[in-house]
Fold:
Amino acid sequence: MPRNAFYAQSGGVTATINASAAAVIETARRFPRQIGKVLAGRNGILGALDEDLIDTSLEAPAAIRALRHTPGGAFGSCRYKLKDGDTGHGDFARLLEVFRAHDIGFFFYNGGNDSADTCLKVARLAEAQGYPLAAVHVPKTVDNDLPVTDNSPGFGSVAKYIATSMREAGLDVESMAKTSTRVFVLEVMGRHAGWITAAAGLAQSKAGEAPHLLLFPEIRFDEAAFLARVDDAVRRYGHCAIAVSEGLQGADGNFLSEAGLKDAFGHAQLGGVAPVIATLVRGRLAHKVHWAVADYLQRSARHIASRTDLDQSYAVGKAAVELAVTGHTAVMPAIVRVSSRPYRWKVGVAPLDKVANVERKLPRDFISPDGFHITPKCRRYLEPLIAGEAYPPYDRGLPDYVRLKNRSVRRRTPARAAH
Amino acid sequence: MPRNAFYAQSGGVTATINASAAAVIETARRFPRQIGKVLAGRNGILGALDEDLIDTSLEAPAAIRALRHTPGGAFGSCRYKLKDGDTGHGDFARLLEVFRAHDIGFFFYNGGNDSADTCLKVARLAEAQGYPLAAVHVPKTVDNDLPVTDNSPGFGSVAKYIATSMREAGLDVESMAKTSTRVFVLEVMGRHAGWITAAAGLAQSKAGEAPHLLLFPEIRFDEAAFLARVDDAVRRYGHCAIAVSEGLQGADGNFLSEAGLKDAFGHAQLGGVAPVIATLVRGRLAHKVHWAVADYLQRSARHIASRTDLDQSYAVGKAAVELAVTGHTAVMPAIVRVSSRPYRWKVGVAPLDKVANVERKLPRDFISPDGFHITPKCRRYLEPLIAGEAYPPYDRGLPDYVRLKNRSVRRRTPARAAH
Structure:
């Protein structure tokens, strides 16, 4: 008898997480003897705890196919860490209660480090309780900080967006530098790891081109050295383009974005390291400065997704189902790099205890010795990840993204108290 | 005997200004009996005053063709208003001195309101001095604030970028709203006119979708009404996405971006109305807020240019040359809308005295009565301008933008003092 599957999206969404969802659903439909319905959690794992399960079998094949080109999280995601994992009570016990009620035999959890840990705990608890469950983690995170896998699906598309935007804005500021803006600052995501900042470096194809400087979260901000480099770039090239990580830290280890900006009423200003850097440059070097904060634009930019990233996002979703139906649990499909030039890759398997809660930072030898740019080794690693285009369809000038029906399954357990 | 042409880019650059440059150069090459070389000003009109003229005849046809897909200003632009236009001395006299020295018979000035005025003054001065010159303005501005023409080339591409980005980020915040970000703020350009803000409104295909609110520079900011609307959107739809013009003004007529943000050292913060709105929403409604500032990314985003805009940018450059060789001066090619659905347009001619220094704002009936969204009439106007895609070629994952040789012509006049 086929058993149902549960799929949930976790944490920050990406331009390609829905491609993994499409892969899970489409692949599950190819195993009707093992897998019944794929039920998706509304707003991620909360959908399981609240028993608000979306019946994906009611969605037309064309709608599921359209998830490949639709950003955001089609079923909703959440930032919620399950409680009481070790006791077998609390959220974890509730999860198994709902799984039992809906005969869930397969659990696909699409997320980053945290959700890998959750997925592993659920697998262990099910095993301890003798509940048959294949729990497979589907990797996703724009931060590219998952270990074992060559890269994290979702990252390649952000990287392509940021490198493209930096190249374009660099041409703009270069045009204006004679009488107007000389310095441009682009703030990018990646609070703890500088992978996205590094990706901005790909925009530069030769010396003198944007970006001239990268400010990594891995390198403490040295104000004097930085200002000297900005000054040097403006003297040599007439302008200076900078990518800065939202997680840039000062010599004291504090985030520069929390450097105490206040509005006229004394309220603390909400985030933003780009304006801090811009204010510094204008104050010290008296250049006209422009700054941009890409924020959600970068991780939802499906219109300029990387074909490689899209293919890999789909591949890990497909592999997750294939692993589950062949008896694997507590694992994650991982991208394995076979070669860089040309880029060849395949999907391997990683045990979740090697993945859970391990954060991969940018290696020091990916950052130039002076700390302000990427090395050729880094470029060799990154370049294949942004290769290829995968445009969405357009309708009246705008990307034609799909919206699913997202109908809920009838509840089978008593409602629980609000968490 | 053919006479030479002078082409210059003025003011803020766009994703398609180089397409107009390509059109001027390619079309001029088709009139060898009237036009000799096209000389371009390095850094705009300053290139003429400094007699730093770029010889575009040294560029290969393929390089000129590649300008169609390259953002920024290929010859450099500037923000510089010529002095002493009415006296026949100063900058204007210098301009004609350089024109005489290089036998310039055609002047193509690619810019907005200011440059239309300059172009007109140059035409009048040349006529007054009996110097034969065809001075034609080529329209361009992301702000869409030029009169007479249906739209300003360059605007359609920003509009497409902003509407796409808003749709994408809207899907993102909608996915996260259950436990995390509920309100998203995107700051867009257009300090005096709300055309780009209005374009964000195109992202919404039905009620409940992003953007939920638009904050126009034409509508004074009403804090209480705004907060009530944000609260309402979050209650109804779970989230609220907002586009705000950099030129939003408070009830006192001051820019909100200059609302007195200070860093920890008391320095005035550099611009940014999005963080001001974000801080307000978090402070009053206690929702988690994210904000983005698109800045130069929006006007250089050639990777998602509008096909319509690209075609029109090329068409006005081509028409400018055709007008000049048929004896017109002190004119500007203008886009004439023949019909909206389907969109049909042609190129007409506008006398420059109808264009110079006239700023077209968003009509009140393009803004909904409550001041927070666009009307169907506005949508009917805007929609055709973002229609169609025009992707650049890619190389190793990134748009393959061209860089010209930009070799200077030998000087023929004594160097002038620095201005």
